[in-house]
Amino acid sequence: MHTHLLPEKLPNFGDKFGYGDFIHLDHHRPGFARMMKGDAFFREIERNCWDPVIRIEEYAQFNTPLQIVCTIPVMFSYWAKPADCLHLSMFLNDHLAGVVDDYPEHYLALGTIPMQDTDLAIQELERIKALGFPGIQIGSNVNQLNLSEPQFFPIFEACQALDLAVLIHPWEMMGEADMKKYWLPWLVGMPAETSRAVCSLIFGGVMERLPKLRFCFAHAGGSFLPTIGRVQHGFDCRPDLVAVDNALPPRHYLGKFWVDSATHDPALLRYVLETAGEDKVCLGSDYPFPLGDLEIGASIEKMNLPESTVEKIFYKNTLAWLHGA
Question: What is the pLDDT of residues 283-303, one digit of tens each?
């Protein structure tokens, strides 16, 4: 499932546009680069974050010939001026299209769009469809606006009309500024962000109004599935606060969206399979980052699951989410 890929060379968009902490790369030593957010160090990446040949070789060690690649969420740049974000999105999407063209047996790509501008987002969606991409990746919120906000609905409508799948990845974690220590934005904020996205799309009626739109949520849906009892109870006991835009209960939507398998916990993965349904769990890796499941599928093979379930996780469910792409 989703893995992250950048171009080896990124323009300095901050210099180009004259503002903003856009990501650029500092290739400070062979095989490594610093991702710089403006003047601030963000993270160090290795060659496998941009070299498609190395990635094919590394994936082959785990009998995985095909990767679904998308950009790193920090590249979304929803904070930027819309036209500049469109320019950046087009650059990233064109790069991914080139990788797919060069290695069609090994790569499928998910595009990125300027979510902060409805018209420009739809414009790029149409180009993404023309590029042959099966879907897009978006963030769990857009400048702290929930995905249920009315301005985003036409974008989701266009995704359904264009038959594009939607991967939702947590980013710009709520409360990040208040919990910098101990890597808490990644360990606590990301699971909460994904649940925020699921709940917003359910309670806002987006899933109900667009039943053919195929959502997949990264990291096994974050904290949504483990807290579905609490979410459902909240819907039941305070419908005046929760059931204001959609009268259908959250449990109704179990089995109607996909999640990936990246749990790092076999017991939790069994629960996810039971709760989301074994037809709705795709192989997740989050490669090449440390929080990912980098021994792709190895832990699943040790779980003594039925072979039919393993086949669904390893490829059949992903193909269903992407509509056989």
Answer: 988 777 776 666 777 889 899
